[in-house]
Amino acid sequence: MPGSWCDEAAWWVAQAVRAAYLPAIRAQVESGLAKLFFVQAEGETVGCFIVRIDSFTTHHEGVIVAAAGNLPGVDLMASCLPSIEGLFSGVAAIRYHTERPAVAAKMGRHGYVTDEIICKKLVTHGLVQ
User: Is 84 in contact with 119 (CB distance < 8 Å)?
Assistant: First the structure.
């Protein structure tokens, strides 16, 4: 179900990403760059996901910005991923970013492969921390 940024969305997204990323994700949703959806079962919200499309010179890529959910006894990734992927038409690929090896392994069972490894070093005012 399409939604807007709210406290409930923030809570779900915080289950999937570090708190430091929440303001940027919120800004993407509120600006219309990304779209937020709630996952519901029997009238209850059991999850949330956010998607966007990135455009490059030669192609477009779908991005699963964040996704989290919990419904005891149900594999929400397996049951929701086909619908999430179906939101992306005209894209050359769909990608996601995660810090969690278990998520990467599970997504691998759905056809996703490692494309790159990103490493980051924080710096402040030009000084290495």
Answer: no
3-state class of 73 per DSSP? coil
For residues 20 and 18, give the distance between their C-alpha atoms in angstroms, rounded to a whole number: 5
- pLDDT for 128 beyond 60: no
Statement: residue 76 has pLDDT above 80: yes
Amino acid at 51: V
pTM reported for the whole predicted model: 0.88
Q: Residue 75 CB: number of other CB atoms within 10 A? A: 10
Burial class (CB in 10 A: 0-12, 13-18, 19+), 34: buried
Helices (H), 73-119: 76-86, 101-108
